[in-house]
Amino acid sequence: MITKEKKKNVLEVYVFGHHIPMSPDKARRVIDQIRGRSYEETLMILELMSYRACYPIFKLVYSAASNASYNMSSKETNLIISKAEVNASTSTNKLKPRARGRSYPVKKSTCNISIVMKDISFDDEYREVYSLKSVKKMRWKKKHTTIGYHNMYISGGIWDKK
What we know:
This protein is α+β, with helices and mostly antiparallel strands and 162 residues long. It has 5 helices and 3 strands.
């Protein structure tokens, strides 16, 4: 008897960047900042960070979002970065000429970056969490609170550091 399996809805988009010429540690420093964040927040972080590793990662994230909007017809506001990994790749050996006809080896390291973006509009876990956050109301102990700044300045408070 032949049974047909149901195809699962594709919820994730994968992007791989191979042999990017930078140290894996330097790329990991940026990837750790964007893991688990939304697409819009990630773009803002990558544009404002002043690391050389931001530009290739920015290109990969942008490519993943365009693939998700084209292949899965999902909105970019619903995308989050679910996985982001940086692995060491091959290193190229070059020779730098030195004095007296000698040469010195220089190793240029490369890395592989993989980014997985997930659409949260299809996912039930995120839908429940966001709905619970919107239902909860903030309850304050006191409705009106006043902060006495004059008491801090009289007693020294903030400015009394030695």
